[in-house]
## 1
Amino acid sequence: MSDIRIATAEDQVLLEKEAKYCSYGDTVHYIEPPRIFSRCEGSYVWDTEDQAYLDLQMWYSAVNFGYANPRLNNALKQQIDTLPQIASQYLHKGKIELSEMIAVDAKNKFGLDGRVHFNVGGSQSIEDSLKVVRNASNGKSLMFAFEGGYHGRTLGASSITSSYRYRRRYGHFGERAQFIPFPYHFRGPKGMTKEEYGSHCVQQFARLFETEYNGVWDPKVGSSEYAAFYVEPIQGTGGYVIPPMNFYSELKQVLDQHGILMVVDEIQMGFWRTGKLWSIEHFDVKPDVIVFGKALTNGLNPLGGIWAREELINPKIFPPGSTHSTFASNPLGTAVGLEMFKMTSEVDYGAMVMAKGKYFLEGLQELQKRFPIIGDVDGLGLALRCEICTADGFTPDKATLDYMVEEGMKGDMVVDGQKLGLILDVGGYYKNVITLAPSLEISYPEIDLGLKLLEQLLNRAMKR
C-alpha cells in the first residue's frame, strides 16, 4: 500500500484557486487531494503527471462509446464548420431527423405513435416530463417513485428522488412523491425467488387501490390522486439494482387499471448500456414517456429530451411555448446524436454489449468466490454491480469501499509492468456498491485488466 499521494506544485496552485473561487455546490471531493485530469482516450484518463487510469464508470455512463471516440468527435467537428448554432425558434435538419429516428424506433418497438422534445440535460428533461404529465392529468402534482430512485437535482426532479438530503434545504415546489419499495432481491425478505419477490412488491403496491382509505384512490369516480409512476428500469445511483423480469409488466397492469402513467427514466441506462437502446425493452412493457440524456451525445454536448405518446404531447394538448430552453435541440448535440444512432446501427451493437457484459460478470462472479466481502454481483449488459460487505457477505461496508476507491485513485497498481490507477463509482442505498459502467467499446483485454485491478484492490482491503 502506498502513502497518501501529494499534489504537484502546479496542481496545488490550481486547487488553492478552486478552494477560493469555485462553488462547492456542484462539486464532491471523494478523495484528497482531488485529481486534476489533462486528457482522455478510449477507456482511460490521464492526470497532470501523465498517470493513466482505467475508467470503469465513464462519467456516470455519459460516455458510453469511449472517451474521444473518433467518429463522434468528427461529427461534432464537421457540424462546427457548417451550422454550429441557431436559435431554437428556427429549424435545422439534425433536430428533425434525430426526432424521427427516436420516434420511429419507439413505434417499431412499442407500437405507439409519439413525439420527441429536447432539452439540455437529464434533470431538465425530467422537468419537461413533469409538465407533460401534469398537463395530461389536469394539474395533478403527486407522483409515485421508488425507494432508491434518482431523477436529478433540479427542484422538480429532486422532489421525486428518494434522497431527502437533496431537498432538505429547499423544500418542495410543486411535485411530491410517495416512495414505493423497489424489488431489491439481495436485501429483500428471504425465502422468495427473485420473481416471487417482484410479484410481492407489485401486490403490495396494488393494495393501495383496494379501498379509498389507503389514500390514493377514489373508487366512486375511479380516479387516483397520483398522476404518474417514475421508474428507472435499473436503478442507477441506487446501486444498479436489476429487478425481476416479471416486475414491470405486472406493475404496468396496475398502473393502466388506474389511469396512472409510467414515465421511464433512461438517463443512465439508455443508449445501449444494457444491450438495448432502452433498458425498459428487457421487460416487455410499453412506456408512456421516456426520458433520456447523458450518452445521447457521448458526453460531448448537454442534450437530453423526452419521447412521449402522441396523446400526451401533440400540439393541441402541449402547444408551442409549453416549455423552452435556449440551447434545446442545438445543432452540435443533434449532429452527434444522429451519428451515434448511425454508428450503433451498422453492427449488432446489442449482441456485442451483452457478450462483453456476460464476460465481465463471469469475472466478477469468480472474484466473489474468492473474496467473502463481495456480497452480491449482478449485471445486465455492461451495467454491473459489485456489493461490498463485511466478512459475513451481507452487512453493508461503506468504509471498505471508500478505501478501495481511494486506493484505486493513487495510480500505483502494477499489471504486467504497467503502472495504473482505477476509477470506480460508488452507489447503492448504503453507498457500498461498485456501480460498473465501462465503455461499451471496452476490449476484452481491458475487461481482464479491470478485473485484475479490482483483485488488487480487494486484496489491499482484506489485508488492511
## 2
Amino acid sequence: MTTNPYLDSGPFFIHEEGVRKLPLPGRSDVKPQYVHHLALKPPPEISHSTPKRKDVKQRCVKFTVAAVICLLLLLLLAGILLAYYFSSPCAHGMQCGDGSCVWESQWCDGVKDCPAGQDEANCVRLHGSSFLLQIYSTQTKNWRTVCSHGWTDQQGRASCRTIGYSRSTYFKSGQQKTDSGDGFLMVKSDFNPEAFILRQLVLSNTCPNNSVVTLRCTDCGSGVNSSRASRAQMASLGSWPWQVSLQVAGSHRCGGAIISPYWIVTAAHCVARTSSPGDWTVYAGIVDPLGTLFNPAYSVSRIIAHEGYNSLTRRNDIALMKLTKALDIAASSKIGPVCLPNVGLNFSVPEKGWIARFGRPENDSGSPYLMEAQVSLIDTAKCNSSIIYNGRISQDMLCAREMEAGSDRCHTDSGGPLVSLKDGLWWLIGDSVWGEHCTGQNKPGVYGNVTYFLDWTYRQMKKHQDK
C-alpha cells in the first residue's frame, strides 16, 4: 500500500523531482507565516471632481444668503413706504381741510371735490399794488394772468365772489400791459355767468396787445391825507375811514378795521371772553364819544376767531366780525375800507406806518378819543432780542415803535389797525396785539401780521359769504 505523502504528519516541501523530508524546526526558529502591522492611514485620494462640488455648494449658500438679505431689505422698504403712505393720506394728491384727499389734477379745476370746497378756495388772487388778477392753472401748475380781451364786469364780479367778496362790493375791472412770457388765460366766447369762473377760461399763448386784467373787488385805501406830523395827536373826522369802535354794553372795548362793507378785522383776544355776536355793537366814522349819538349802531351776525389762537403766546391773534347788514359806504365819505395786502406786496424794515387807536389824551381821564401816531417797523430779530421780547415774537407778528420819543404812553387799543401807504393806497398790515409800554418798559408795540393771515381771511369770507 502506497503511503500518501500529503497525509504524513511531518512537514514536507514538495518538489517535482521528489519529496525531501525536512527536520523539525526548533522553537526559536518558528516564525509566524503572517505578521500584523499597523498600516499608516493612506493619503486621501485626489479627486478632480471634489473642489468643483464644494465651490458650487459655497456659491449656492452665498447666493441664498444674499437673496434673503435683498428680500428683507425690499420688505423693509415696502414697509416704510406703506407706513408713509398711511401716515400721510395725501401722498398721492392734495389734502382737503377735513383730512380727505383729491388728486392734484382736481385742484383749481373749477369743480368742488373737497367737502368744504377747499380745492377751489384759493385759486384766484390779486397781485401787487395794481391788483393784477392771477388765476392758478392746474394744467400748467402755475399762476397766470388773464387777458383783458373779452373781459367784462360780469367776469369781474364772478372773480371777486370766488375770492370771498360779496356780490354787492364789486368796484371795477381795469387793464395793464405785461411782458409775461408764461402764457395767459382767455375768456371763453360762450361765457356763462352762473358757472364757476375757473371753468370759463382757457389757456392761450397770446393776448392782444399783452393787455391783462386788474381787479378791484372793493373801493379801498383812499380818502386819507398822507401829509401828517410825526407826533402823536388826536385824529380828525374822516382821516382814518376804516377805523371802528367795537363796543360792549355801550363802552368801547376794542378797535377794528373795515375791509369790506360786511367785514371787520380785529384781535382774537378781544372776542375770546365775549364771543356772542349779540353782545357787540359796531360804530364807524367816529373819533370822539359824541360820535355814537350821530352815527348808526351796526349789529354783528358772526364772530370768527382764528382756530389757532393761543392766549398765552398770543399766536394767531386775529378775528373777523361780520355785520348783520352792510355799512352804507356810499352815503358817507367818512367811512370806507382799508385794502388787504395783496400777494407780492413787501412791507419790511424800515417801513413807516400809522396806527389809530381809541385812548385818552394826556392828563385826561374822560372818555376815549381817536388818537393817531406814526410808527416804524422793527426787525423781528431785534424785537426778539433778550432786552426786548426775548424770543416771543413769531412769524405771524410785527413789531413797530412810535416815531416820537416818549410817545408810547398808555393809549393801547387792542385790535386797532396798523396801516401803511404804498403807491397811493393805504394797506392794512397789522392789528394791535399787545404792547408793554403801559408797564413803563417803553417797548415796541406788537401787531398781528395781516399778510400772514391773508389766506385765512379770504377763506373765512368765502365760507360765510352772502348767497
